[in-house]
Structure formats: structure tokens, C-alpha cells
Write a structure and sequence with these properties.
The structure is a homotrimer of 135-residue chains.
Chain A lengths: L1 E9 L5 H12 L4 E20 L3 E23 L2 E11 L4 E22 L5 E3 L6 E3 L2
């Protein structure tokens, strides 16, 4: 189950992934589900997996961009937290989404994290070249 | 934690945001997370933040449109509930998403709300010109 | 509430919907919320509701495609489980989403399911021609 549901705001000008990482560190969250993020961004860098093992292409977007939604997790690999988030963005003209590499908040980012009662773990995977969830 | 998970259907022809607002009023939900919505819409009006403070542009879409996903929250501002939802829609040709302003259900909308064990609050923010989550 | 939160990985080459169906069968999940899915796909078939009752159009996509997000539910109809998922996909050039008909995993699919403390039920609906959630 979710022991605790954390709902918090990331403020204008802050880097989204760094802010979530800091929040998790301060709150002692090492295992959780990113249930959702909505808000808006000034800029974003998304990554797209193109080939295995682990070949990514990155694309930069500049806003204002709506954060339509986001999902992901907080897990440990060798005792270090890995926060993995995919995010969907939009303008009236553009719809785009992918792996969240970097993003600067425009008006707000409203983040919901469900803290788990069991530990999620990642380990490196030779086939994908990525840190994959362990069963 | 989530005290209660509400999963309910909004029926054809109903206005989505009004229906969720009514459901929350009838069920006494004043603090919660919109975990998800899927289904389809006849029409939708989405808003996009263009500039601060609080300048939005709205766009109308007509369907049938799939509701791919949605996220958001139920919070109180001055004792009145504010339901804030971002939603992603699609047709075979179009992908669009943004702040949900209005929408009429086509076949169904399957809504999941997690009711929180603590009260989410909003207050007006001079910088963004919007009602922002309070820490 | 959510009795249990299941977070698990679907591996490369596996069919996503079949894998989730198998996981639910093995874990005895008959009522739940698909809280999220992220990862990447090799191929996907999405469906779009075009007219009522129940007229769908299907579109095939080939990847690699990011799984940006997904939402849905596990419910029973006549004692048989129905898993209903909508999913958002992307490449640097394409953003698409709809009803998940079929998909083959590329690198991984990280699935989060919240098992419910009450039974979700579906029944066929003459107006929509689909299996709709029962109140």
C-alpha cells in the first residue's frame, strides 16, 4: 500500500527533477510511485530511446508548455535513489512527451508521490543497457 | 494515505467537470488526488497558460475524442473546493492536452479519485495570478 | 483504499496486455486501478471510438515508441476479468494515444497497479455497445 501520499508544489524557475530529488531526500522517500504531475514549464529536455542498448536522442522544447501528466517511480540502485519520470507536455500547437531529462517550472508543478511499503530496486541490465526494475 | 479510492462513471452527454464536482460534493470529498480518467468525449475546451500572471488561451475540440489520461486534485480555497484537472485527448489524427475547462462525455468517463487523509489547500498567488497549492 | 500496490516489469518482446492479464491472474487481482505504465514499445495497435454503439477504428504504430503514461482498471464482467487501458506514446516526431489493443515491449514496461478493497464490475451497455463500469 501507499504509506504516505505526498502532494507538493515546485515553484517558478526551479528545475523539476532536482526539486523532486531534493524533496525525496528531505522526506526520506527511497521507494515510491510518481502518481502525477500537472502544471507548466518554461523549458524541457525530453529523451527518446532509439536503439538498444541504451541509445537515446534528446529534444529541447521551449514554452510556456502545459504539463499534462507524468508518471514514474523512486527506486534504489546500490543504495542511491533513481527517479524515473515520463512526462507529457503541450501548447495549443504541440503535443509531446517522453523521458524527462530536465525541465524548468513556469507557473507551478503539482507533484503527487505515493510512498510505498516495500522497497523498489533497480539494477543495470546488459540487454537494454539501462537500470531496470528488479522483480 | 488514501482513505478511500472512488471509481465511478460519468455518463454520455454529461459535462465532465460538473459531474466530478457534484460527485465530490455528494461524497464529501474536499481533499483528493485525481488519479486518472479514461473514456471518450464529444467536445472539449482546453486552456493553455501563455503568460504570467494568469493569461490563458482556450481551444475548442470536437470529437469523438479519446480521453487518454488525466491527472489533478481536489483542494480547498477559502472553504470552497477547487478541482484542477489536466487531460490528454486524441483521435487517429490529433493528439492534444491541457487544462480541462469544459468537456461533454461521449461514451463514458471512468474517473478514479483518491481521497486524502490530509487537507490540500490553495491560495491566490500574486506572481502567477492563479490559485496555487499551499505547502 | 488500495490494499496492495503492485509494481512490476514487463520484459522486452512480451505482449503488454497479455503480460498484465497474466500478472493479475497469478496475483489474484480482480479489482484494481492501473495507476501508471512507463517504458518503451516496439509496436502498438491503438483503437479510437468513432461512433456509437461501439464502432472502433484501429491504427498500427511502429517504434521504438516511448510509453509516456497509461491509465485504466481491472474489473469483472460475469466473473471474467476485463483489463481496460488507455495509453500515450511518443517518438521525437509523433505523439499518439488511445485505447490499448496490442503492444510489444521494446526495453521495458514498468507497470503500477493499485489493488482495490472493493470489487469493480462491468456490464454490457446497449447505448454505447461497450462493457461499462457499474455504479
Amino acid at each position: 500500500m501507499f504509506n504516505t501520499i505526498h502532494v507538493f508544489r515546485v515553484k517558478p524557475g526551479q528545475e523539476l527533477l532536482d526539486s523532486i530529488t531534493s524533496y525525496c531526500a528531505e522526506s526520506g522517500i527511497t521507494s515510491g510511485v510518481i502518481i502525477g504531475i500537472i502544471g507548466s514549464l518554461e523549458t524541457a529536455k525530453l529523451s527518446f530511446l532509439k536503439a538498444l542498448p541504451g541509445k537515446y536522442q534528446s529534444v529541447d522544447y521551449s514554452g510556456p508548455l502545459e504539463i499534462v501528466c507524468a508518471q514514474g517511480s523512486v527506486a534504489l540502485k546500490d543504495n542511491a535513489p533513481i527517479i524515473h519520470i515520463h512526462i507529457q507536455l503541450s501548447t495549443p500547437e504541440i503535443s509531446c512527451g517522453g523521458h524527462l531529462a530536465r525541465a524548468t517550472v513556469f507557473s507551478t508543478a503539482e507533484v503527487t508521490i505515493g510512498e510505498l511499503d516495500h522497497q523498489l530496486m533497480r539494477q543495470s541490465d546488459d540487454y537494454t543497457g539501462l537500470n531496470e526494475l528488479v522483480d
